[in-house]
Amino acid sequence: MNRVLPKNALLIACALLGAACSDGRRNSISIASLPDLAKPGSSQGPGPSDPADMATPPTSAPYPSGPYGNQVGETMPDVSGPGYLANQSWSTNARLSDLRANPACKCIVVTIGATWCGACQYEQPDLVSDVSSDPAFCVLGILQEGSSGATATRPDLDAWEGTYNQNFPVMLGNANTEQLMAGYGSSVGLPFTLIIAPSTMTVLDNVQGYDASLHAHARSLCQY
Q1: CA-CA distance, 54 to 102, in Å (whole number)?
Q2: 90-95 and 80-84: which strand pairing?
Q3: 43 falls within a domain
Q4: Which single residue of 12, 107, 208, 209 has CA 20 to 30 Å from 189?
């Protein structure tokens, strides 16, 4: 089930944020033709453990094996990259698998955004509040693009983290994270969100655009 938010929801967010959506891209991103999602044995899988990256003790269950995909019902691939952990310390290898290792997580949300996206900006305080009030609601943020529309850089992420003080991991986007949006059309709405069941890493739904009911919707799908 693909849930695309109505235009007026995005327009309200943009109106509240002034010129945040005035660069002509609105809240959508063009998806290029990219390689297949990571398969078992590829370098995209879980990497060597770095104690500094482990915010919580890992579960005993290994990350589910592939094949991997990004469509509803498929197994979410592990993604990794440099970024900030939930305690706002810098890591060279922030990983989705480390988030899954948190035994408190009953639902995982992966949200992909860009600094130029007004709706992405509008979403951040909501996510911070939801994570603070509900430890079972676990979020991985991915900053895919900076203000220029190019792949986000460390300065972009520094400014993003400094502005919103996220209490969840936020990593830099790359080709593999962009591939998570493939198959949903040539242009997808941002923020682009995947809701995932931690036990199996099965994709339960995707949401395009800002959705004020995301937390409630995720809780319903993850049944907690």
Answers
A1: 9
A2: antiparallel
A3: no
A4: 107
Mind listing the pLDDT tens digit for each residue in 53-88?
333 444 558 999 999 999 999 999 999 999 999 999
Q: In what order do the strands lie in the sheet with 170-172?
A: 2-4, 202-208, 192-197, 107-114, 137-145, 170-172, 80-84, 90-95
Q: Which residues of 14-40 are buried (b: 16+ CB within 10 A; e: fewer)?
A: beebeebbeeebbbbbebeeeeebbee
Question: 92 is written with which tokens?
Answer: 């060279």
* CB-CB contact of 88 with 165 (8 Å): yes
- What CATH number corresponds to the domain at position 166? 3.40.30
Note whether residue 70 is domain-resident. Answer: no
CA dihedral sign of residues 202, 145, 137, 184: negative
Ordered alpha helix ranges (H), the chain: 7-16, 96-100, 118-133, 154-164, 175-179, 214-222
Query: Is the pTM of the predicted complex or chain greater than 0.85?
Result: no
